[in-house]
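Predict the holo structure. Ligand: adenosine monophosphate.
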Amino acid sequence: MTFQDLNLNTPLYNALDDLGFTVPTPIQAEAFNVVSSGKDMVGIAQTGTGKTFAYMLPILKNLKFSTQETPRILILVPTRELVVQVVEEIEKLAKYINVRVLGVYGGTNINTQKQAIADGLDIMVATPGRFYDLALSRVLQLKNIQRLVIDEVDVMLDLGFRHQLINIFDILPERRQNIMFSATMTHDVDEMISEFFKSPERVSIAVSGTPLENILQSRYNVPNFYTKVNLLSHLLKDTDTFNKVLIFIGYKKLADLLFENLEKHFHDECCVIHSNKTQNYRLRSIEQFRNGDNRVLVATDVMARGLDIDNISHVINFDTPDYPENYMHRIGRTGRAEREGSSILFSTDKELESLEKIENLMNMTIPVIPFPEDVNISDELIEEERLVIKERNNPIKKDETIGPAYHEKKDKNKKENLGGSYKFKIAEKYKKPKTRGDKNYNKRNKKK
Ligand code: AMP
């Protein structure tokens, strides 16, 4: 496929020529028609795949020249750096188009931005907080916004922008197209899609299910969090083998808990990154891990994907990711540049379903290593593990000798399962079908 197949216009072709781009990247080819169609879209793509042009090409192609002053396109991104970057990309692509682009973000003088808005614009690129402040100040009129793009929504939700996004959805015109990009699928992202998007079309570049051959994969069955800590500590004692270890864990809170526990045994050898840590802290952690001052880095999926670190000896999946793509991204951090790398996966019984999805994607079974005898099995449970256990093994439900549960239903609420016939009973009683389209009711009555 070439850009000619997308039926763009001369100004766009000229800009692409200047940039030296000749073929659309896969995400650009996939997203073009969906974005053009006006349907809601969710794109799964990482930075570097050309995702900015994936939404900007169809948007710019369809944006008519206008002298109106209020924005028609809103692009929300998580950080100020990304605002600057996206604005630059749009300006390159819109070099021969008469379009006004404005980037706004917090931590800078809001009055200058208000003035720029008053001068008129077509496309606004913003961080959520500053956008909301500007909208509340009423300088920014939203009624003409037709398309909303949320870029890096996984990072946004990870940074705690959920409420701010919901507030923004509330004040935007209802008739609009929602376009969202995320690099990693997470439960937060999934939830947001189903809550706020209208049957969005999903566009993704399929993650290869074929892991690199030079990554040696294995796994352990481990009953709970603290036993995982014990096993990990046992493994990390072998400093020669485990010389640069990236540990993945899905949740920030658990990343902190794991880090605290590791620090007890491996003081000054570990560092941690997730979105609740300050930018400086994160940069310092990454640098210490990169240059070998720290042997172990604990990271969440979303934060770790921007990492570009070579020579990682082991990736340890402290939990089993529920989205198999995340597992592929995780293990791809080792075995780079033809070097041998190892990935070790810890899975509890509860995580076996996720394991199955991963193994299906790769079409292989990850070999199991027997649990080492000299590692202590802990029966201490973390809060998350306790909650589930309570629900599953509720002794009151199981043990009938205890008598009726305290919340047994009152007689009037004890309804037998009447199946479909209940509807007919009601219909007969009231002498009319319950719904207008209830053809079976009429048939049934004719037979009588
Ligand atoms: P992004 O994923 O949007 O951050 O883009 C990554 C880089 O790829 C940017 O520097 C883009 O300018 C560049 N790029 C975007 N589309 C193409 C293309 N079709 N061919 C070559 N490079 C591209």
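The two ends are 65 Å apart (CA to CA). Residues 3-205 form a domain with the Rossmann fold fold (CATH 3.40.50.300).
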